[in-house]
Every structure is written in structure tokens, then in C-alpha cells.
Amino acid sequence: MSLIKFLTSKVFFKQIALAIIALIVLVFIAMQWLKSTTNHGEFVEVPDLTGKSIETVKIEIKDHKLRFEIQDSANFNPNYPKFSVIEQYPLPGTQVKESRKIYLILNPSGYRKVEVPNVVRRTFRQAKPTLETLGFEIGNISYVDDLGKDEVIAIKHKGEELKAGDMLPLTSKIDLVLGNGNRRSN
């Protein structure tokens, strides 16, 4: 039998029809299986977890049949309790599938520590922006007898003198001791 005769024969068309029917049945079965295993059309709403402790988050996540993963902590935010959620993804109110992983960013226990720069013997005009750029706050300013007018003689935190390289939490208040332009009296 030649190829052309085979392609136009009843046997060939029966085989094609059976293959198409088998393919349709397999696709139908696969679609039904996917619908049942992926919970097609069934969603869970993501709860608002911001400001809540990890213990509370665990309970809420379990109640909503979700999972969570803690991402790296962010910068300390004084508006939220320590170790509470400050960000989450997906956002609250989003519709997700059951067992979806919710990514959380926690508030650390305090501000990160920053190295104190060397501002001694620099003018107040130079020292102030340097300290503020690093996240420190300028506290009390006092003057002592020194020829360098408005020159930083010493820096202090809570009454203790600091030196360059000391570590302080972000937003710490640094007191400055400046020269008043007068000679030191012996």
C-alpha cells in the first residue's frame, strides 16, 4: 500500500479520530485534576499583620491557612513595638491561594549603632552636618576657653567624652564642647 492510499484510507481517519478523542479525554481529566488540586477560584484574604508580635502573627497566619517567612529586619521604627511586623508582602487585603507564603519585615530591638566620626578640632559648621548626616542629633552646646572660636574641643554623650570610632545608636544626642575664642587661663 502506498503512502497516498494509506493517508486517504478509512483506517487512517479512524486512527486520527481516536487520537483526537483520546487527547480531548486526557485534557479534560488533566483540567479536572488541576481544578481540584489548585483550589481554582478559592482565595484567602491576607490579614493586616503590621504592628503585631510574632506570636500573634503565628496564630493569625495559621487561622488563615497561610505560611510566613521573616525577611531581614529594617531600620528601627519607634512607632512600632520591638520585634513587631512593620512591612508585609503581599499587602493586607490581597486575595491569595491557601498556603501562600507571606513575607514579613520586623522592627529590630533598637537603632543600629553608628561609628562616631572624628570632628574634634573642626568648626561647628563642619561638625554639625557631619554628625546629622550619620543620624546623630546635636544636644547641648557648651563653651570653654580655647583660641579656636566655635571649634569642637570635645564631644560627649550622656556626660561621657567620646572619641572617634566609638559606636552609638542612631539618633543619639551628642553634646558639643566648643571653644569661645579666649585664651586658656592658667
Major sheet summary line: 4 strands, mixed
CATH topology of the domain at 113-179: Trypsin Inhibitor V, Chain A
What is the CATH top level name of the domain at 113-179? Answer: Alpha Beta
Unreliable spans are none
Distance between the termini: 124 Å
Shape: elongated
| Number of strand elements | 11
CATH architecture of the domain at 113-179: 2-Layer Sandwich
> What is the chain-wise order of helices and strands?
HHEHEEEEEHEEEEE
- Global structural class: alpha+beta
Q: Helix content range of the residues, please?
A: 25-40%
Strand % is 25-35%
On the 0-100 scale, what is the average pLDDT? Answer: 89
Separate helix tally: 4
Strand order of the largest sheet: 7-11-8-9
State Rg: 35 Å
Q: Could you explain how this protein is built, in words?
A:
With 186 residues, this protein is an alpha+beta fold. Among the domains are: 44-106, Trypsin Inhibitor V, Chain A, CATH 3.30.10.20; 113-179, Trypsin Inhibitor V, Chain A (2-Layer Sandwich). Helices cover 28% and strands 26% of the residues. It has helices at 3-7, 10-37, 54-63, 124-133; strands spanning 44-45, 67-70, 85-89, 95-96, 101-106, 113-115, 137-144, 152-157, 160-162, 167-169, 173-179. The strands form four sheets. Strands 7-11-8-9 form a four-stranded mixed beta sheet, covered by helices on one side. A three-stranded mixed beta sheet has the order 2-5-3, covered by helices on one side.
